[in-house]
Structure formats: structure tokens, C-alpha cells
Amino acid sequence: MTDFPFPWTDLAARDSAPTEGLLQAAQALWGQALRFDPSDPLWPDRDRVVVSQPGLMDRLRDMTGDVDAGLDMSRAPPGQAIGTAVGLALAEARLSARFGRSLVDHRTWVLCDGADLETGVALEAAALAGMLGLARLCVIAGVAQSDTSGADRFAASGWSVRRVSCEVPGPDGQMDREAVRNAVVAAIAATVRARRPMLIICTQAAGIGSGRPTTDDAAVPAWAAVAARGRTARRGWQRRAFRHRLRAEFTRWQNGAAPPLWEVDWARAWRTNVGSGTPASPLAAAGHALDQIAQLRPELTCLTLAPPDHDPQYTALAIACGTRDHGMAALLNGLGLHGALLPFGVISAVSIDRLRPALRLAAVMRQQVVHLLCDEGAALQGADMIWLPVEQLASLRAMPNVFLFRPCDPVETRAAFTSALARTDGPSVIVLDGRPDTRRPDTEAAPHGGTLPLGIGPEQGAYVRSGPNVARDVTLIASGHEVAVAEALRRRLAGHGIEACVVSLPCWKQFARTDATYREAVLGTAPRIGLERASGFGWERWLGTEGLFLGAEAIANGCDDALLARVRAHLAAITTA
Amino acid sequence: MTDFPFPWTDLAARDSAPTEGLLQAAQALWGQALRFDPSDPLWPDRDRVVVSQPGLMDRLRDMTGDVDAGLDMSRAPPGQAIGTAVGLALAEARLSARFGRSLVDHRTWVLCDGADLETGVALEAAALAGMLGLARLCVIAGVAQSDTSGADRFAASGWSVRRVSCEVPGPDGQMDREAVRNAVVAAIAATVRARRPMLIICTQAAGIGSGRPTTDDAAVPAWAAVAARGRTARRGWQRRAFRHRLRAEFTRWQNGAAPPLWEVDWARAWRTNVGSGTPASPLAAAGHALDQIAQLRPELTCLTLAPPDHDPQYTALAIACGTRDHGMAALLNGLGLHGALLPFGVISAVSIDRLRPALRLAAVMRQQVVHLLCDEGAALQGADMIWLPVEQLASLRAMPNVFLFRPCDPVETRAAFTSALARTDGPSVIVLDGRPDTRRPDTEAAPHGGTLPLGIGPEQGAYVRSGPNVARDVTLIASGHEVAVAEALRRRLAGHGIEACVVSLPCWKQFARTDATYREAVLGTAPRIGLERASGFGWERWLGTEGLFLGAEAIANGCDDALLARVRAHLAAITTA
Hints:
homodimer; Rossmann fold; elongated; Transketolase_N (chains A, B); thiamine pyrophosphate (chains A, B); magnesium (chains A, B); transketolase activity (chains A, B); Transketolase (chains A, B)
């Protein structure tokens, strides 16, 4: 079983024709405002453009010139385009604050339709854009109706809204294209003075206009002029960049490269901060890891849900988004898509289903985003973890191109961070348990008593953690907190003369990519038992159809007598059969 | 592997204390307005109450009387409470339109906090409530800040908003409780005259008030008076209901019962409409099924995404919600929770991840809701299906208490509807394929050449569809459109002397609940091959670890030579080994 190739057709195909207003706006944007150089379409300080209206894409391609090359996103499920664009604009704001306007000075444009404005994810993202005051963001929406309640909701979120009516008939009783064009041009020109994110909404009720709108040839921008304007802008930028005092740092961010000696520095920082402490939980270890990464790699950009005063551990470096999980995840996609930043999201356990569409879009776009999935109670109060994962783990493991890590201790936590940082072609989700592990966190290598070569550990996705590697009577496979249960079970089974081997399985996808020999060595030929406080969906892959899966009910009280009896009965039944 | 028991702790625990304004509002609501009789807390025409603030629940329980008995929902992830309440209010509107105000005349109340107002699902549901003009809905939010942008967004959606400031200090410099109480009482009294849904927002910035708010004893409503008011209302209603001309029909709806001879009538209607036609796709068959059910059981209430002019097949009976999938799914939960209605949602394939949190809430609440998952392209245009399911099928199959049906032909489609209608303790998702099946739809019983008893068919979740039942060389297991591919493969394999048996597997959860003997008889002992245009995640359960799974890539061109060669090679390798 391999990862499934992505069907782009899965993304919403809203194939209605663009409204006349949107078409005129697109022409005005390219002709008048867009900072875009066809000879180097990906230069860092270009304007970002997101199009979420497939019909418009076809019309744009009819224009002379390579329109696609200048687009950052050309299709997405409804609403995601606006969320991504807010992330792009946030990246611009963050980078220009760091490197100054001489290096970072561009805008983000969205061309979309009414469906985008209706969605909850767009409304969440719009509220965040208003809260963050992202004045260099402009959404242009072509709406096939007179209702502008969508625009009102954006205005309520602190956006500046301009309405362009395409319903005023001209002298011939049809739409007055000239008037529409002038209104759109004026609205786009007004973005230069904007102090808030701007929405330009072009309304056009059914029945207005001359059937399918046609492009007026005179309105098509002269492509040579567009290109010349872009080339001038880019060359000016290049001159400034060449002399800039932060040029090396900017280039490193831009290339997504780690600083020199990054791995050595991180290992040292880790040992100093985590290694010297008492046994820490994966959640606490993740807090340290985030702090260390933020110091060594300031391009890390962290969004959280909690308001600042609730979550001191992450606040120093985080932007709080409130209860807007889905919008936050869409913003993270935009931060990643912009380039030059490392997007991290700290979310609560119950959020994962809410932000799933954005996570999947990141997977489809092969975009690096890291979601830290913390227990809400533990993150807010340091109290015991109350989250019980059920099908969420299975549903994330099933999602193509998403790596799910469920570390059981600080060593595995660090390995998960290392893997997630190294994964530039897709999102990672790290599920963090708030309960402390009994194992000392300063042990760098995973202990195992078997014959596997040294260095084999969490980065393989699964490894033998303890117990006899070869002559085992049973293999206990677990992840996260349940590894501790498996370890306890191993010790109790040993008292009954049963030699158990504990396999920790933090990441299915990594383990599935190792070679078959390693997988067979880890899983062994003895009967297999899986332990995870979750639905057992999909576990047959590792346990076989004969294997025993022990979920939350069975291990509710840890390794108690009932669990021991159940395991022994299962093993006895197998031996008899 | 059984379904996992639901951890209620998975729902968001927002355990902060309620604001003073919310507390006063709750007291005013019970004391002054709520239509609630403790001696019969579930009488049909009671007011519906949704509480989404756990801290408030504890305070309410301190009040004398059985508060919990009058609540329809007392905890939910952020935003879902508002969405559910909009559904409750929609149910009231629909039922009073059918049975008149003498039988149905109640209100829906929500007590929530600021987090609820921020979420996308609440904003989507609020837009729908405004669009539908649900004037008997009142949301009371206690917000721990002065910012009222959340209220502005509701106002933009056509809500009437009243602000109650709890920040005006009284003579002692502390909060003036008396003023707050009067303002809240006036706001609640105003709901009687409301022509639009109402939001009462009580703002209270940090630092105002006397620390943790305390209940003023004088403000606690006299429980005996509350109960007397409710009893009077209920007795009046009982007298009217007893003499009502639609009493029998109302009682049937209320009990969720099918009309007499329902099964006979539906079978006849089905035969007349579908049986006489040409081979129809599951999608077309589902359209007929919905029409028939709507005629025989007018309590069916259908929400769709598409605006009316796009989807003529379902419009006659559907309420179009626009691109607000998540809000729509939350409304469906409310329709189900209200009682007396059969909630159906017609959604597009790409929507399923967007409405997942609402679907899961329905599963947790053990609420009957049916989602018909249509291909967007096919539903809008009748064109070929373009959706390729990837991990969505696996992730829904993994969700506890959700039945996923993927029928391959009209017979299985009807069986899926029958099962979904019979399932009153959880949601069902029916995945509908727009491509016509080659099999004639008028065959009532599934053909199989084996020894399984007659009557065994789709309602078992899986069944032998064709091929030799006992002496088979290979078992091909498929669902939906891939059953046709499996049938073609069976015929081609027969040409090479290989006897294949085709098993259709429309519903995993149903099949898992049949007894082991049946499962073994269906799956057989021959090598197994699974065919599904999706991720193979979880398929090891039916195929074993030795089985072969053929996903979208392998069957992209149907049963072509490459597929045949691959299957033959696999079988040859097994025989050799």
C-alpha cells in the first residue's frame, strides 16, 4: 500500500463563468497594479496572487503572456483561497518587519467568487486579517447577485469594503462596461492608501449584461507594458538587495535553509535544557523544542488558538488566533506557500477535525506545515491530559502525504521535530501527550537489548524499545503514552515466564517506508498485540488479522490484572490452536 | 475490533467561569421566559435550550430544581451549539408551518460564550438563520471583553443585536448588578416582538466586577413559580392537541414512527419509478428514493448546498444553504435533535471533510442524520463523475457510530436508504456514484450462484454477488462503481480458467456486525483482492496482510489488460509460494 497520488479533481470545480466585474478587475489588476515580472516570475518581492474561480483562469489564459507563472494558487475548495491569502499577507508583514520595506514590500491579491465569502473558513480568516491589520491584502470578489451581506460580514471584521455595481445599465440597456471598468480601476488604485485589508465586491444579479460576458479587446492590458513595469520593479529590488546588510540572512530564509551548524547547536541546546531536567512529558519537551528552534531559526512563525495570557509557554513567539482553528490552519498554509518562513501551529486535540480541509490542502500542495496537537486541558492548565484519541489518529494516518507522529518520550519528541523540519514536501502532525514518561529524557539513543544496528530508532517510524529482539514470545506494539503501559505489561509478563518485546511505533508512514527486512525484524514472527487509546481502525496492517488490539477500554486502568489476564488468555488460546 | 465507546471528554472543555452577564441572563431566562415544565420536561412544545458554557452548567445546577432535564444540549465543541440551535429553530418553523401555532409555538435559546461567536461554523449557521428569518431563536453570549466585532458579524447576517454592558460601575465602584439584571430582563422580554433571530451580547472586560461573580440570592428564580408557569402552558397545549384535527399525524411525526403500510408503499413506489426505467446510477436512484420518501413521509427535511436553479432533482423538497457545508451539517443535527423530523443533507464529495466536526457530534449524540454524498459535477451537470475518493472513505469508516454506505447499483441504493431510515441511533453517509451501472435495476434480489440462503444481500453489509460461492480461485471484493470493474475482471479471468467470485461490500460496519460464519462464507478462503478507487487504508481487515489492494491508479482504465496481467501475476506468485 503506497500513498495515493493526489486527484486534483477532488478540489472543488466551480466552473461557472466569472462575472463581468471580476473579469474587468483581473484585467485592471494585471494592467495597472500587479508587481510581476514574467522573466523571473518567482522573485521574492513579487505580489502574491490567488485565484479561486476556475472559469476566470481560462479567461486569464486567453490574455497574452504567461499568467499562470505569476499565480501562487489557482484552485482551492471554497474559502481556502481567502485563508491562504491572509497567510501570505501575514508572511509579508512578518518579513517586512524583520528585513524592512526595502527588501519586502509587496501585496497579496485574491480573485474569487461569492461562494468563497460565504464559507466559515473565509470568515475566520477575515476576522484574523482584520485583527492583525493586514493592509496589504486585497480580495476582489465577483458575486452573481445583488446581496452584499457577505461584504457586511467582512466590514464587521475590520475590513474596508468597496462595492462595484455591475447592474447599472448603459445607454443600450446592457451593462455599462466602461463604467464598471472605471469603478474597478478606482477601487484597485485605492488599495495603495489602505490602512486595513480591503474587499472589493462586484455585484451582478442574474439577467444583467449581455449573456456570457466577453472581453473588450481594448481592455486587455498590453503585456509588454506589464512586463516592463515588473522588470523595472525587480531590478530596483535586486540593487537594494545586493547592498542590504541582512542579505545573507534574507537569502537563507528565502532558500528555506538551516543556519550553519544548526544540527550541532540544536543538539547542544536540547541537551542543556531538556537533558538536565527531571523526566518530562512529550508536551513539555515540545515546548522546549519550540523555544530552542525559535532562537536558532527565527523564521519559525507560530500560531496558537489560546489568547496570550493562557499559554505562557508559547506566547513569546506565537500569534493567538482565538477559537478559529480552521482559519488558523488556512493561514499556516499561506505562511508556508509564501516561502522564507517555518509555519508551526499549536492546536488543541479537539481541533483536528475542524482544520482538516486546510490540512488536506497542505498535503495536496506538498507544503511544509507543522501542527502540534496538544491536549487542551494540559496546555491551558498543566492538568492531566483528558483527551482520548478515537478515530482521529486513524483518519490522519489515512490522509495522503501527512506524517503523524505520536512520540512517547522526549527523545521521540525531538526525533519528530527533526523529521517534521526536514520534511519540506508535506505537513506533519505531532500529537503531544501531557503526561510525564517514566523514562529519563537524557538518554539520547533508544535502549534495546536486541541485535538491531545502533542508530536505529524513532526516525525509522518504529523500533524495538525493550525486551529480547529475537527470541520473543509476544510483540507489544504501542505509541505515545501507551508505550509506558506496554513496558509495564512486559515486566509483568516476564514474571509469568513470557518474554515480551516492546515496539514503539511513533510514525506509520516513516515505518512503512523502511525496507521490508527492517520491518520484519522489528515486528518479528511472534504473536502481536497493539495498544493504543484509540480506535483500532487500520491496525490490522501491523497486527495481521490474528493480532489482538487493545483500545481505551482495555487499558483504561493501565497495566492492571484484568489486562494481564486478557493478554495471557489470548496467548494461551493461540498456543493451543 | 468494536466501535469505540465515546469519550465525552473529547468535546471541548472550556471551563472558565461564566461572565456575570451570562449568569444574570440565565436566571432571567428561567425566571421569566422559559417554557419548561419540570413535571414533563420533554413535552413536544417546550422551549429548546442549548448551553455551551460548562462553567455555567455548574452554576445552573446550584439553582433549585432539575435544570438538566430541560436542556437539549449541554456541551459541544465551540460553535456547534449555535449551529444546532439554528437547526432546532428551523425545525420549529417547519413544524408550525405544517401543524399550526396551536400545536407548535416555542422558542430556542442558546447560552454561550465568546468562543462560540468566533467560529466559522457559527458564522455559517448565523447566516442561514438570517436568511431563513428564524425569529424564534435567541442567542445569549457572555463575552469576557469589550470587543463586539462578533456581534457586528451577526448583525451583518440579518440578526437583531442587543448589547448589554456589564462594565458600568455601580456606586461602590464594582459592577452594578441591578443595572445588568434590568438590561438583561429587558433584552429577553424584547424577543417576543422579534422579527429576526436575536443575539444578546453581554460584554465584560477583565478587571471589571468583584472577582469571581456570585449569585445574588434575590435573583434566583422561585422554582415553584417557574414550574407552575410551565405546567399551565403544557396543560393548555394538551387541551389544544387533544382536539386538533392533525393530532394523529403530529403524534406519528413526534414518535418518529413510519406511517402504516410504509414498507409496502415504498417498495411499490420504488418498483414503479425505478424498476421500469433504464439502468440507472446510484445517484439517479437516490433522487427517486428521496422523492418517494418525501411523498410518503413528509417529515423528511432536506438541506442542500446548491442554489435552487442548479439542482432541480432535489429542489422541490430542499432548503438551499449555499457554500455553507459545515453550518448546514450543524443545522441537520439540530433538526434531528428537535425530534419529529427526518433530516437529510445532500452534499458534494469535497464537502465531507468540511462538515466532519458536525458529523462526529451527531455520532456522539447518537442522532439520526442522513448525508447523501453526491459528486459535485454530476449533481450540477449530470456529467461524468469526477470525484476520486481517497482517504475520505477510510476516515468515515473509522468514525465511531457512523455507517458509510457505498452502493453499486439501485438495489443497493434502496437497501442503503432502508438501513439509514431504520438507524435512529446514529448518522449514515451514503456515497452516490453518478455513473450508470450495467445491471438492470429492476432485479430486486441480488444474483448469486452460490449456496448462501436467499434474502442475504446488501443489508448484511457485504454479500456474494456473482461467481461460484464455494469452489472459487479468488475473491474480488469491491464497492460502488468498482463492483462493475470486478465483474468485468471476473469474466476475463474465467477466460483464463480462473474462477473468481465477486463480493460487494457496501457497508463495513454492517458486515462487521454479522456473525462470523456468514463473514467467513462471504470472504471465503481463496486469495482476496480488493478494488476501490481510494486509499487502501484499513483494507487489511478484509484482505489480510497477504491480500492485494488495487486502488485508483491500478483501475484507472477499468478492467484493461494491465489489470488482468497484474492480477494473474499476483495469483501465480501465491500459487508458487
